[in-house]
Design goal:
- This protein has 402 residues and is of the alpha/beta class.
- It is built from twelve helices and nine strands.
- The protein folds into three domains: 3-107, Butyryl-Coa Dehydrogenase, subunit A, domain 1, CATH 1.10.540; 112-218, Butyryl-CoA Dehydrogenase, subunit A, domain 2; 228-381, Butyryl-CoA Dehydrogenase, subunit A, domain 3.
- The longest helix is centred in the C-terminal third of the chain and has 31 residues, at 264-294.
- β2 and β3 form a beta hairpin.
- The structure holds flavin-adenine dinucleotide.
- Residues 113-114, 116-117, 122-123, 147-149, 199, 362, 365-366, 368-369, 371-372, 375, 387 line the site of flavin-adenine dinucleotide.
Length: 402
């Protein structure tokens, strides 16, 4: 199928189900989008795709933006499912049931979360301690996960556990899909600086996972986890979709509308800083588009870390600049900061900037810290010598842990 046929197919979808029609059209619209192969055009036919090059997905997005007012952002519908789960389920899931799993993920009927981090295993993920022991056709899991975004509303979790403690840490891991409603899964909220509990701790007490829910083979968990993380970094590091959109638009709006007493010198310095941030945000956006266009397969490499680290640092700098434009008012406590589950978005730029100043502290931690991204860039992209890893070949059970 060529580009103009793909455009035609997307326009036909908009005629079939109108996303602007009364009532919430998300599930019927995205269900039809999946059935027409327009969810992930690079996926095989029947699984939400058409077997085309990934870069052609932008053609679908373009037509959807042009053809209707309502646009369902993947990252708002099911960020972890679509951002990282889909590619992993496609590559490592069993054929049986795959279509329904991917369809419900794309429509957002089933939300996914990522159960990787543990209290003593974040950057050093391969050191994780959650144990999975085989019992007949099931695996029995015990352990604790932490910082699990969306666990409280998820149907499925992407989970890595230790199936063989006698092997070195990277080799004894396996990867599972966990039914979050299974007996023994306990989800408790963790509150962030914003007052929200966007994430949770998850306790696993004798939780049974059927063997058929293992993604990949026993002992392949690290390989599947790396594929997941590469996709996560691409999902987090894309930049705004429109020129001058996203965080930089909020900064410009505040700069134009917030009255402030500044000396001419202060004004000139602030203008300079905003212009520099605008250029950086635009470079990030263009680099994101270029990286997507250069991809001709579903396999993502370490270069996703470039976008992730740039997005984190530029994003934080923009929200800090918003706070400086607002002045001391940026730090005034607003109504709405009571403890709650879920995340906030406000159409009011002033409130949005105050909230995001706090939320943006997480940009350089979530999905791998900026220090770890720089290590990956140094070692895997630039080919610099690796940092010493003394426990790499030692059986996991012999490694001293805190
Ligand atoms: C908002 C948010 C959402 C999250 N959602 C999820 C989720 O859904 N699922 C999930 O599994 N996890 C999630 N996380 C966890 C996140 O992946 C970890 O916090 C992150 O990987 C860092 O791990 P850590 O917190 O254990 O810090 P640590 O690994 O203990 O790191 C502490 C500090 O040491 C530095 N450091 C560690 N090792 C090195 C090294 N080798 N070289 C240089 N510096 C190093 C780090 O950069 C950091 O500054 C989330 C985190 C946040 C903030």
């Amino acid at each position: 199928m060529n580009e103009s046929e793909l455009r035609e197919r997307t326009r036909a979808l908009l005629k079939e189900v109108n996303p602007d029609a009364k009532g919430d059209q998300r599930i019927p619209f995205r269900g039809a989008q999946f059935d027409r192969g327009l969810a992930w055009v690079s996926f095989p036919e029947g699984l939400g795709g058409l077997g085309l090059a990934p870069k052609l997905q932008t053609v679908v997005q373009d037509e959807l933006h042009k053809g209707a007012k309502t646009y369902y952002e993947d990252m708002l519908v099911n960020p972890i499912g679509i951002g990282m789960g889909a590619a992993v389920v496609l590559a490592y899931g069993r054929e049986e049931g795959k279509r329904e799993l991917l369809r419900r993920m794309f429509t957002g009927e089933e939300i996914w979360c990522q159960l990787f981090s543990e209290p003593s295993a974040g950057s050093d993920l391969a050191g994780l301690a959650t144990r999975a022991v085989r019992d007949g056709d099931d695996w029995v899991l015990n352990g604790q996960k932490t910082w699990t975004t969306l666990a409280h509303i998820s149907k499925w979790g992407l989970l890595v556990a230790r199936t063989n403690p006698d092997l070195p840490k990277h080799d004894g891991l396996s990867y599972f899909m966990l039914d979050m409603q299974a007996p023994g899964v306990e989800v408790r909220p963790l509150y962030q600086i914003t007052g929200e509990a966007e994430f949770n701790e998850v306790f696993l007490n004798d939780v049974r996972i059927p063997q058929k829910h293992m993604l990949g083979e026993e002992g392949q968990g690290w390989k599947v986890a790396i594929a997941t993380l590469m996709n996560e970094r691409v999902a987090l590091g894309g930049g705004a979709s429109k020129k001058g959109g996203g965080p930089i638009a909020v900064l410009l709006e505040l700069f134009e509308n917030v009255e402030a007493k500044r000396s001419p010198a202060e004004e000139a310095l602030l203008r300079d800083r905003i212009a520099k941030l605008y250029i950086e945000a635009e470079l990030l956006r263009l680099t994101g588009i270029r990286a997507k266009a250069a991809r001709d397969s579903n396999v993502v490499g370490p270069e996703g870390s470039v976008g992730k680290v740039a997005q984190a640092e530029i994003g934080k700098a923009i929200w800090e600049c918003c706070a400086d434009v607002l002045g001391p008012d940026a730090l005034v406590y607003e109504h709405g900061y009571e403890l709650r589950q879920g995340s906030t978005s406000s159409p009011n730029s002033r409130l949005h900037a105050k909230y995001t100043l706090l939320r943006s502290r997480a940009y350089s931690i979530e999905g791998g810290t900026s220090e770890i991204m720089r290590n990956i860039l140094g070692e895997r992209v630039l080919g610099l010598p690796g940092e010493p890893r003394v426990d790499k070949d030692v059986p996991w059970k012999e490694i001293r842990r805190s």
